[in-house]
Amino acid sequence: MRRLTLCGLLLLASTAWAGPKEKGKPAKEPEKPTAAAPAELTKKEAKVREQAFATYDQEIASGSKTRAADALVAVVDDATLAEFHGEAYARLGDILSELSLPYAALVAYTKAFATASDTNVSEVSLRVPKAIEIAAKVGDLAILEKPFAGNLGLARTDDVRGEMAYLAAKENARGRQWGTASAILKMVKEGDPRWPDAKVLEGIVLNQQGRHEEALKAFESADRTGREKDARWHDAVQINTARTWYGAGNYPRAIESYSRVTRGSLFWPDAQFERAWSHFRIDDFNGALGQLLPFEAAFFSKWYYPEADLLRIYSMFLLCKFPESERQIGHFKDKYQPVHEALEAWGGKSDEATFDAAKLYMQKGKITELPEMIWRPWADEERFMLSVQAVDAADDELKRMKAVAANPFSEAAKEWLKARRDGLVESEGARVKARFAEQESELGEQLANAEIFILDILRMKQQMFEQAALTGKELEAAKSVKRTERLRKGWQEWPFEGEFWADELGYYKVDIVPECPASMRQSVVK
Known about the structure:
The chain is mainly alpha-helical. Among the domains are: 11-20 and 45-146, Tetratricopeptide repeat domain (Serine Threonine Protein Phosphatase 5, Tetratricopeptide repeat); 301-475, no CATH class. The protein has helices at 43-52, 54-62, 65-76, 85-98, 102-115, 121-125, 128-138, 145-150, 158-174, 178-185, 195-208, 212-225, 231-247, 251-258, 268-281, 285-292, 306-318, 322-346, 351-364, 372-375, 382-402, 408-471. The longest helix has 64 residues, at 408-471. Residues 1-38 have low confidence and may be disordered.
């Protein structure tokens, strides 16, 4: 049976790189944030710091940003000056930003956050707003999750505390540190712009801890306070609410919540399928089949739902519709055996090749070797889309950096940015490939189970024949209560005649009379 999982929720800089000022025309030192008083340095520490930044101070005074940046690189390369690395990275980030290299500046800021010491944490923390701003523009807020999770002491002001806590909590949630994530989310206060997103993440974390009632309250708060969010965001909250009811075992409420996911939503197909499971869990096999019928339409031909076919087969089996079950098993094998073989063959591809292929489908709709149903989810998965945006931004900036003379700082910046770019490609490619491996394994098991299922059908038939032989008469199917359904005002009913119409998808009702004898009627309700 499908294990429903909870999904969390959760501008390219292209300006030219300005070169150094002409000699003899020193530039005015750029305005920098006023730092809070650092921790008191001993005379010896103060002297070491003065010596460490002496060249930087001289070059800034003379108006040479590039040579000042070179001096900062010399500081961070000196292991004996580790206490001042955080400040050096922070100041280097400022210069890179002024030179129209925002992504490289962002990487420098993250290094500053990761290496900040007690003596310069106040100075470094002033770069947090700028780092968040740049990360949002290049599509790489994820780069801030780990350094923020490792140093929440950087959250010195209310304007950044909520964003920092949210990103830090995401890092802990990704590592399945549910308790830590919950504790950090308490730093996000109601009224903060991140409050609705934080409540969604809180609901997801609570669900993972089996605290469904509290999770429902979190989602309700998110939906109520996130009025300015777009329709996609609200639909994500709605489907997470439905999944929470399902996880709590309240299937009627899950059905109600799934039905509220808007029909044009990205999450609507998942809501239809998962709602079918809710019907199935309460022995409403006709309800399940009604939800699953649209998955036979051409609209769903590019979607990967092997479990929808299996659930349809199993529902038919429990209604003792054996010939139809056997026909559907054959259809399932014909449809998914080639998919399984293609997934198996993809196992030899590299992470980079997998990323590039998924990116190609996302941006141009081009299919590489695997069926389109396998690529389709990556066309609109938010995390993957942001990663592609970030990689493109990095590529653009690296191209511009090639056009300038080599300096110690530019070589270091290129190395850092390329490492981040390649790391994104590798990690996202590995994530996509890992999903393919899961699908290959699951599908192999499902195909094997389909063969076993044929034996189950044969056994069920044999039991029916044996009972008929013992009683000396043919077994009668269990009788169903006949009820007359009244159509709601303004509604009209059309019988299904084999054709699917787009405006009918999601509104089908199935009325199949079970053929099981009363003594053999089965139930999935526990």
